[in-house]
Amino acid sequence: MKAVLSFSRFRWAFSFCAVVSMLSASSAGATSALFLSDIEQAAESTAVVIARVGQARQSVHAEWNRPLTLTSIEVEEVLLGSAPATLSIEQLGGALNGKVHYIPGDARLKQGERCLLFLRQVDGGWYLTAMKQSKYELRESKRGTFVRRDLSEDCSSTHRLD
């Protein structure tokens, strides 16, 4: 029998994962960010969704001349708020002039992964509400669906955007 978690059970799981992640997360170097609870994130978000990550494409931000990654998202379920069936998440970072750049503390979206995302729409663009804090991986097992959030940093072979 496949277990289906209700939103209230997701909320409990988020809180549990947030505490575990905070206790086990490694240092993010010079990055600092205000930690938001899932309830605070939901209040700041346009939508909380379960989604499948699609393809990412690289671009350059027209105003800032910084690398920009646009990742397509296929929304499977809207848990809170409203969102279209497909959208693109904008993140500063990506490849530019032969180097890979990133914003410390931002989430890495991997094609094909299924996740729960806190999203905010600003001026027509879609963004993660609180960067890496806004992404939970969803893992299926015989015992049901589990959420996982990794707040550690993997900075190998990348360059910070300052």
Describe this structure in words.
The chain is an alpha+beta fold and 162 residues long. It has one domain (7-25, 36-160): OB fold (Dihydrolipoamide Acetyltransferase, E2P) (Beta Barrel). Helices cover 15% and strands 43% of the residues. It is built from two helices and ten strands. The chain has helices spanning 7-24, 38-44, and strands at 47-60, 67-81, 86-92, 94-96, 99-102, 114-122, 125-128, 135-141, 144-148, 159-160. The chain is globular. The termini are far apart. Mean pLDDT is 77; it is low at 1-8, 11-30 and 157-162.
Poorly predicted runs of 5 or more residues: 1-8, 11-30, 157-162
Mean pLDDT: 77
Percentage of residues assigned to helices: 10-25%
- Just name the CATH architecture: Beta Barrel
* Count of extended strands: 10
Indicate the CATH topology: OB fold (Dihydrolipoamide Acetyltransferase, E2P)
Largest sheet: number of strands, sense, barrel closure = 7 strands, antiparallel
Q: Please report the number of helical segments.
A: 2
List keywords for this structure.
10 strands; 15% helix; single chain; OB fold (Dihydrolipoamide Acetyltransferase, E2P); disordered N terminus; 162 residues; 3-stranded mixed beta sheet; 2 helices; alpha+beta
Give a brief description.
This protein is of the alpha+beta class and 162 residues long.
List the topology elements.
Layout: H1 7-24, H2 38-44, E1 47-60, E2 67-81, E3 86-92, E4 94-96, E5 99-102, E6 114-122, E7 125-128, E8 135-141, E9 144-148, E10 159-160
Parallel strand pairs: 5-10
Antiparallel strand pairs: 1-2, 1-6, 2-3, 4-5, 6-7, 6-8, 8-9
